[in-house]
Every structure is written in structure tokens, then in C-alpha cells.
Design brief:
The complex is a heterodimer of chains A (197) and B (119). Chain A has 197 residues and is α+β, with helices and mostly antiparallel strands. Chain A is built from nine helices and five strands. Chain A has a three-stranded antiparallel sheet with strand order 1-2-3. Chain B has three helices and six strands. Chain B starts with a strand and ends in a 9-residue tail after the last strand. Classes of the chains: A alpha+beta (197), B alpha+beta (119). At the A-B interface, strand 1, strand 2, strand 3 and helix 1 of A face helix 2 of B.
């Protein structure tokens, strides 16, 4: 590759929440190198960074640098934080290095942590054997069936989330994430009561 | 014609796909990025690594040796699979392993175009 760097406009497509269509498209100008053998424009490392960051921003994903910053500010090792969010250390390392990204559902939890709405103590509490998340939430939520209708989440798919206790059909990791989300909701309920069926 | 892809091509390519950096060891033309992102319905660029690794890690991988490429290296085309939105799609992949065996160029990563691309 020669040093002949120029700029090119590339499209960045943002998938919808279901991931089965493109919701929006943006054009960004990125530095590209020129392949001396073919004359083709080749994405530079900086270009890849710009593209991936743009996509992550529009998707509302926490960036790798933000994950690292959050972990360091919390004073946690990669191993410890991966234990707390139950992701596996390899996954966390790959998220921080930008080689992979968490699912959108996990991302909601990470954003809540990043914004200081879920604390380490909440996560530690979820690690205790026999934790019943319904008892961790407000009394209104200790029904066998709770429907949250007006929670303000970044993803519309969760705004009308139904959590049905033990017969929810959710996998344990999903139950864990939902429990953290509900913990946040319960706090909001005390501050800003709204209807919960 | 399809042939079994030799190990002396597969081993360095897999190593680079796992550990290589974009631009340094993995060259991606802008047209390949556009094809991949459009056909994968908005996937990230790094999402292309795992399905390529999975396809090339399978036993007795079949591919087609592509002759007369301008790049100084050996090029194989092969199929790989990418799952998005609960649907697994078959993709056409083409990679050139440069003669120095420390660099690859991703030449294709898109849904098959049956008019011109068959293994």
C-alpha cells in the first residue's frame, strides 16, 4: 500500500431494531488508501474507526472506548466486570477492543451503568444465589405478572415489555438483564409514578 | 472448478482473519464494504470476520482458485454463511493471500450474483 491517501464518501447503513431491514443511511467522508496494484480505494484503519463509530452512535451502542473508560472509572478489571454482567471475560475483552459488540439488550444494561443508573451494588446483588429480582423491586412489582407500559427505554421493543415471573420464558442471562432494567424502573416509579398493571 | 482449498493457504488466512488489523494486514476495498454492509443489512465490518473464519475452518473446505487477479498472491472464492435477523444467508466470499503471507485482501463478501459468480 502506498502513502497516497485521499478521501471518499461511504455509506453507513443503520439497521432497524429487528435487524431485518435498513432503517436509515448516512454518508461519511473517510480517508482511503490507494491499492498500487489495482488503483482501488482501500479503507484505512481510521476509516474503519469512523464508520464503526458512526454506526454505533446511530444505533445507540456504547463505544469500545466508553466501555473501557467506564470499567476503569469503576476500578474493575475486565475479569471482574465480565463476572458482574455475566458476559464472559473473552466477550468483554472483544467488546472493549472493538472486535465484537454486545447485543442491543446487553447494551441497554451497559448504557444504564455508564449513565450511573445501575450501580455495582445492584450487579453484585444479582450474583447472590437465590436472588429474587421481584423482591428487589418496589412492592408494586411483586405480582406474578407485571406489565410495564410507559418505561422510557432507548429501544421501543422494550417499552411494552411483559415480564411474567418464573414463566416468562426468558433465559437466565435475559432475566438478569431485565431484572437490572426493572430495578431502574422501580426507582423511577417512586419518583414519577405511572400506571403499572 | 471447485477444489479443496490447501492448508498452506488456509492457515495464514485464518491467522490473519483472527488477529489482523484492518488496513495493515486485512485490506478492504470500499466497494467490498458497501456490498457487505448492504447485503448483511447493516452489519459492522468486524462482523465479517467470524463467518469467514467459520467457513474456512470447516474440514475439507471447498473453493475455487481464481486466476489472473491483479493482486500479487493466490485467490480463492468460497461460500460462507451469515446470520442476521433469524435468517442465515449464503454469501460469496473471495480472499487474496498476498505472496508474503502476512496480508490478505477481501475481494468479495456479498450475496451471490448467479450471473457471474459460481464456484
Amino acid at each position: 500500500m502506498n502513502n497516497d491517501t485521499k478521501y471518499a464518501d461511504v455509506n453507513v447503513r443503520i439497521p432497524n431494531l429487528d435487524g431485518d431491514a435498513i432503517a436509515e443511511m448516512h454518508t461519511v467522508r473517510v480517508p482511503v488508501a490507494v491499492d498500487p496494484h489495482t488503483g482501488e480505494e482501500i479503507l484505512t484503519e481510521e476509516a474503519v474507526g469512523i464508520i464503526e463509530t458512526t454506526k454505533a452512535r446511530y444505533m445507540g451502542l456504547l463505544l469500545p472506548a466508553e466501555m473501557k473508560k467506564m470499567r476503569e472509572q469503576l476500578g474493575l478489571t475486565q475479569r471482574r466486570i465480565s463476572e458482574l454482567v455475566q458476559s464472559g471475560e473473552k466477550s468483554w475483552t472483544r467488546w472493549e477492543s472493538g472486535k465484537a459488540r454486545p447485543s442491543r439488550m446487553v447494551n441497554v444494561l451497559l448504557r444504564l451503568m455508564y449513565e450511573g443508573k445501575v450501580f455495582i451494588t445492584d450487579l453484585v446483588a444479582q450474583r447472590k444465589p437465590g436472588t429474587n429480582w421481584r423482591n428487589n423491586c418496589c412492592p408494586k412489582m411483586s405480582h406474578s405478572k407485571v406489565t410495564v407500559t410507559k418505561a422510557t427505554f432507548p429501544t421501543p421493543s422494550i417499552t411494552q415489555m411483559q415480564v411474567c415471573g418464573t414463566d416468562s420464558g426468558l433465559s437466565p442471562p435475559s432475566q438478569f438483564i431485565y431484572s437490572c432494567l426493572l430495578l431502574t424502573i422501580s426507582t423511577k416509579l417512586y419518583l414519577h409514578p405511572f400506571s403499572v398493571n | 472448478m471447485e477444489t479443496e482449498i490447501p492448508q498452506d493457504w488456509l492457515v495464514p488466512v485464518l491467522r490473519i482473519l483472527r488477529d489482523g488489523r484492518f488496513e495493515k494486514e486485512i485490506l478492504v476495498p470500499t466497494r467490498v464494504w458497501n456490498d457487505w454492509e448492504a447485503d448483511s443489512l447493516g452489519a459492522f465490518l468486524y462482523d465479517v470476520r467470524e463467518p469467514l473464519i467459520a467457513a474456512l475452518s470447516a474440514p475439507n473446505v471447498i473453493g475455487k482458485l481464481i486466476a489472473n487477479q491483479p493482486e500479487p498472491g493466490v485467490t480463492y472464492a468460497f461460500w460462507f454463511f451469515y446470520r442476521a435477523a433469524d435468517t442465515t444467508r449464503k454469501f460469496y466470499g473471495k480472499i487474496c493471500l498476498y505472496d508474503n503471507k502476512i496480508k490478505i485482501k477481501l475481494l468479495s463478501a456479498h450475496l451471490p450474483n448467479f450471473s457471474s459468480e459460481r464456484l
